[in-house]
Amino acid sequence: MKYTVVEASNDTEFGLKAKAAFYAAIDGLSMPNVVLPTGETPRPFYQALRDDGSKPAFTYVQLDEYLGLAESDPRLFAAWLARDVLDPLDIKIRLTFNSAAEPEQEVRRMRDRLAVHGPIDIAVLGIGSNGHIGFNEPGSSFDHGVRIVDLAVETIAANKAYWPQSGTSFPAQAFTLGLADLKAARQTILLVRGEGKAEILRRALLGEITPDVPGSYLQRQKGLTIVADTAALSAMKL
Ligand code: PGA
C-alpha cells in the first residue's frame, strides 16, 4: 500500500496542512465532485479554508445524513456543513440528501444523481472510533452504494455528544454514500485527530482488510493522503 502521511503537531498546523492537501487535490480540476465530512475532526480544516478567503470551485457531494429530521433541524449534517464551510466558501452546487423525504425514494434519487453527476473525484473523510467511514458501520460491504443504514450504538452516542441539549430523540438511521462510491475517488484525504483515534487508524491502515473495519478499504485506495496529528499517529509508530 502506498500513501502519504502528513503529520501535524497542533490543530492550527493540522488545519493548514489539510487545506494544503485539499488544494493540491483539486488543483487543475474543473468543478470536481468533492465529499466533505462532518464531525469534530475537520473543524481546524474548515477554519483554515474560511481564513484563507479564496473560493475554490467544486460540487459538494454529501457523505451522510440522518434520516427523518425536518428541513429546519440544526442537527442536519447538510446544515452543519453549510454553516462551517459551504456558505462561507460560496459553494452553490450541492448534492445533498433530503432527510425528510420518503427514504427508499431518496436513496434512488441520490443514486440517480450520482449516476448522472458522478463519480466522486475527491473524498475528504474522517474515521469513527469503530472504524466507520461516513455511516458505513462495521460489517458494511466494500461494494455497497448509497443506502439506508442503522447506526451503531457507539455512533449514536458519539453523535449525541455533538448536541447534548437534544435529549434522547436522536436518529437511529441515516443515509450514507457506500464504500463503492468512495472507492471511485481519484484522491482520498483522511483526516484524523487525537489519541482516541490512534488504535483504529493503526487497524485501518496496518491491520486486516475487512468489512469489520470499514476504513481498511483505504489500504487498496490509490491517491491516499492521511493528514493526522501526532497523537493520532502514535500507534502507527510502535
Ligand atoms: P469525529 O467523527 O470527527 O467527530 O470523531 C468522525 C466520524 O465519526 O466519522
Q: What profile does the largest beta sheet have?
A: 7 strands, parallel
Strand element count: 10
Number of helical regions: 7
Rg: 17 Å
Fraction in helix:
25-40%
The whole-number mean of residue pLDDT values reads: 95
Order of helices and strands: EHEHEEHEHEEHEHEHE
Please give a quick description of this structure:
The protein has 238 residues and is α/β, with parallel strands linked by helices.
What this model shows, in words?
The protein has 7 helices and 10 strands. By secondary structure, the protein is an alpha/beta fold. It has a 7-stranded parallel beta sheet with strand order 1-10-9-6-2-3-5. The protein has a 3-stranded antiparallel beta sheet with strand order 4-8-7, covered by helices on one side. Helix 7 links the parallel strand 9 and strand 10. The longest helix has 16 residues. The chain starts with a strand and ends in a 9-residue tail after the last strand. The structure holds 2-phosphoglycolic acid.
Provide the descriptors you would attach to this structure in a database record.
238 residues, alpha/beta, seven-stranded parallel β-sheet, three-stranded antiparallel β-sheet, 31% helix, 18% strand, globular, binds 2-phosphoglycolic acid
Write the layout of secondary structure elements.
Blueprint: E1 3-8, H1 11-26, E2 33-36, H2 43-52, E3 59-62, E4 64-66, H3 77-86, E5 94-95, H4 103-117, E6 122-125, E7 147-150, H5 153-160, E8 173-176, H6 179-183, E9 187-192, H7 198-206, E10 224-229
Parallel strand pairs: 1-10, 2-3, 2-6, 3-5, 6-9, 9-10
Antiparallel strand pairs: 4-8, 7-8
This protein binds 2-phosphoglycolic acid.
2-phosphoglycolic acid binds next to loops.
